[in-house]
Amino acid sequence: MPLVVLPEPGKPAKRNEPVELPGRAIALLLAMLCVAPAVIRAQLSPAVDEQFRQASEAMRNGNLEEAGRGFAAVSKAVPAFAEAYLNLGLVREEQGRHEDAIANLQKALGLKPRLHGANLFLGLAHFHLNQLEPAAAAIQKEVAAYPKDPQAWMWLGIVRLAQEKPERAAEALDKAAAIAPDNIDILYHRGRAHLIVSNSSYRKMFEVDPHSWRVRQIMAQANAEADRHVDAVTEYQAAIKLAPTQPGLHEELGSEYRNLGKVQEAEDAFLRELEIDPGNVLARYKLGVITVEKGDGAKGKQLIEEALRQKANLLHADYNLGRAEMLLGNNAAAAQLLERATSAPGSDPDVVEQAWYQLGIVYRRLRRMDDAQKAMATYQNLKEEQAESSQKALKRYEVQQNPNLAQPPSTVAPPEPNP
């Protein structure tokens, strides 16, 4: 879950931050829209068609003055040519002449109400003038006409954020992300919208009942995300005191105890969770992992396999089952599981490193000495790479804290000898 920041009692929440506009989206759309369908251009005289082509080429090359003169001349020569007004509007928008852009885009839409891109850029021009209502209205028309255009949905979301309507922004940005799931700009604004919505919900919870166990749970989760595990334990304990049989709380508390290395407390919390909610898969799985770590391979394997029957593909399940099989002396089965653990998607690097180490041990038990040597060499290489990465991260942190460390030491001349 994302980190949340709850306001202190009596302090208002911060107003939305200014929106950073993804200029690359504008540049991309300019390149795409600076065209006119061939069937329309065929109706132009050769001279006007050539003028339109040259203006389009100038626009693609970033020569906005030349492009503007060309499109203005074309629109004057052929007043019913909607695409000329559209492209002239795009030029004026890029030049920062937003009022002129609005006038030309409105002319284009008067001629062709569904002209692709015209309402979107009309909305952007209004947006740059901080005219948010007409901006939203124009872009809403664009998404209605072209519901598969992710840029239009993205910009509708951005405008809704500026209007301080994060719920509606999240709805629009979810649609944009469904169409273009790998677009960085969309993902950024979508995440921001959802974060604002969630923080608003948490602030409302605090206002309605600051002593609710839900508030304590949220604060505990925020502390856990920030690696403040002692504080997280304190908040979970407070939540449990208010709601002692609430499903999920003891499992989350057990996870925080485990992060603090308090194995017995974690085990007790997971057992209590299973008393309250026997169907809690994570509590059963984590209890199985602790049981394996305590050396009981049979019981640990049973618990992990029970959890996997409820939910397949639990993270690091192959590694933990491999450890259980090692304890039981089932070395061939352990090798297969640990081999899978070394290449499992989403695995923690520390777990992958340990999987190679355990594989080295299992291979030796199986008399596969060459494989054992390779596994241990891989483990050593990963360990050294991780140590080097940690040193670099520490050095970066030290430089951030003390910029003088980044400067080379000054050269001091030795004292001259006495005469």
Poorly predicted segments: 1-26, 405-419
Distance between the termini: 74 Å
CATH fold-level label of the largest domain: Serine Threonine Protein Phosphatase 5, Tetratricopeptide repeat
Category from helices, strands and their pairing: mainly alpha
What does this structure look like?
The protein is mainly alpha-helical. The N and C termini lie far apart (74 Å). It is elongated. It has helices spanning 23-33, 38-41, 46-60, 64-77, 82-94, 98-111, 118-128, 132-145, 150-162, 166-179, 184-208, 213-225, 229-242, 249-259, 263-276, 281-293, 297-310, 317-327, 331-341, 349-365, 369-401.
Keywords:
Serine Threonine Protein Phosphatase 5, Tetratricopeptide repeat, single chain, elongated, 21 helices, 419 residues, disordered C terminus, mainly alpha
Task: Write a short abstract of this structure.
This protein has helices spanning 23-33, 38-41, 46-60, 64-77, 82-94, 98-111, 118-128, 132-145, 150-162, 166-179, 184-208, 213-225, 229-242, 249-259, 263-276, 281-293, 297-310, 317-327, 331-341, 349-365, 369-401.
